[in-house]
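Revision sheet: structure tokens.
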Amino acid sequence: MNLARGSFLWMKAMVVVVGIAGGAAVAQGPYQVMEHWAVGGAGGWDYLLSDSSAHLLYLSHGAQVDVVDTSTGKKVGTIAGLQRTHGIVVDGKYGYVTDSGTNSVVVFDRSTFAVVKTIAAGTGPDGEAFEPVTKTVWAFNGRSKDVTVIDTATGAVVGTVALPGKPEFPQVDGKGFVYDNIEDKNEIVKIDAARMKVVATWALKDCDGPSGLAIDAAHHKLFSVCDGKKAAVVDMESGNQLASPEIGDGPDAAAMNSKLELAFSSNGGGTLSVVDMKSYKTIEDLPTAKGARTMAYDAAADRVYLVTAKFGEIPAATAAVPHPRPTAVADSFEVIVVGRK
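Predicted:
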């Protein structure tokens, strides 16, 4: 993680094909890095949200959320006054941010980016989803291993759903069901949003520590990215695992394009894996940058937005933090824009 980004990309560029998962050669495909947008600031980062209709990109960034205009690549706003930001969703006039530092969901005005309300959640709220049938926000709490369900009409908590383990990225199908990776159990759960009840639990094969989850509701497929350079494709109706494509190292986020039948995995090792969801073959492993493991995908523009920074030294391990991550260099935070040639 302390390898300079420039030298890392230079070495990757010298390779005509990229080997992943034990040496399988993957030809370079149609996507390329198009732009780098400087955002700056200090602190780590987590989820991104692309608001395609408003041409905005929301970036969780330490104690705040940065807002970038995707037409210009310029920062146009900040949602401030938080502690440790994670998930971001928007609906109507308001947006919602999970803040694990205060164990809450913070509501903001989308026109001014001002905080208007704070709602108590479980312990360690992280991933988040807006469920359109019930018009509820679902905040997945990593440490209390449950979900806080919020009615967007009233801003009130209307329920809590217990989970079998630590949740990661959630997705919704637009028909009243919510899906989520259970990272420490290597499972996916399916939740009935109206009943606020887990109705299915599906074990994943050859998939350790599933984190990012993407959905293609039109083709009834879920795409989980896992440790060990593997992903899992699951039929979202039966729960059957259809394939285990090879991806890059250190994935965190995932996305899918239903029309193109492509899946994307952003990998902290410094690549973006592109998987053909008809053949389940990885058709590209695009060099991006070390640490670019979270992303948002804008299907309308066919753009992938990733974030990373330059890294300093790794702090000394402590009892509280036995596996510390390298610190991000101040003002090096950036967005990497990937698109088609």
